[in-house]
Design a protein that fits this description.
Structural class: mainly alpha
Radius of gyration: 19 Å
CATH superfamily: Tetratricopeptide repeat domain
CATH class: Mainly Alpha
Shape: elongated
Order of helices and strands: HHHHHHHHHHH
Number of domains: 1
Distance between the termini: 18 Å
Length: 224
């Protein structure tokens, strides 16, 4: 990998990393969450203050009504939280996830589900708590461990060393895990360790030269 490519990637990290984590949160785990509707995604930012009677998409209105009418339903609270994320109201999403959390079954899948929900609403400290619960049940799940590492990067006060340690633990389980290698490179970039970042990118390229993650980086670099 050339130094030109490395420096080009460094310039992309600020815009690329956050977008990657947010978009990747739905697909990164073996245990998937409830489907996230897309109909509300194109709503203007002001739509987050609308009520179901004020013109929300029908599926949004139904989800919010279900959450109100079924306060003890884990699925209903989670679905409403997802809807609030779609319309950009992260505070309301957090309220829904806070209601859902005590209702989550004490299983690996349940804890990962609520962890992902908090991650998507940018509540990274809360997400950390539930990824840790999931890993207490299944410590060898690479996806959950890498997601836990990502929470340390994305929070307001990042802890890059802790994220890197978590990613290295994931790589002990699966040395070729592409999302882990990608996130490890980002952690090093944002920490300012370009040599370690280059090594992580090289590892990703060795693991899969045709990786869409690697191709995305190169495509963005070549377009600038």
């Amino acid at each position: 990998m050339s130094k030109n490519l490395l420096f080009g990637i460094i310039g992309l990290i600020a815009g690329l990393a956050i977008g990657f984590f947010a978009a990747n949160s739905v697909n990164r785990n073996a245990v998937s969450r409830l489907p996230m509707p897309t109909a509300a995604a194109s709503q203007p930012s002001g739509s987050q203050n609308q009520t179901p009677q004020g013109g929300m998409q029908p599926e949004v209105a139904k989800a919010l009504d279900d959450a109100k009418n079924k306060p003890d339903s884990f699925e209903a609270q989670l679905k409403a939280g997802d809807m609030y994320i779609q319309i950009g109201n992260f505070e309301k999403a957090k309220e829904c996830f806070d209601k859902a959390a005590p209702l989550a079954p004490n299983t690996f899948a349940g804890n990962v589900t609520i962890a992902n929900a908090y991650f998507d609403s940018k509540q990274f400290e809360s997400a950390q708590k539930y990824y840790e619960k999931a890993l207490a049940i299944n410590p060898n799940d690479v996806d959950a461990r890498t997601d836990l590492g990502s929470t340390y990067i994305e929070r307001a006060d990042p802890d890059f060393d802790r994220a890197i340690a978590m990613f290295n633990e994931s790589l002990k389980i699966n040395p070729k895990h592409e999302p882990t290698l990608f996130n490890l490179a980002i952690a090093y970039f944002r920490k300012g360790d370009s040599e370690a970042a280059k090594k992580a990118v090289d590892q990703l390229e060795q693991a899969n030269p045709s990786s869409p993650l690697l191709a995305q980086l190169k495509q963005r670099v070549n377009s600038n």
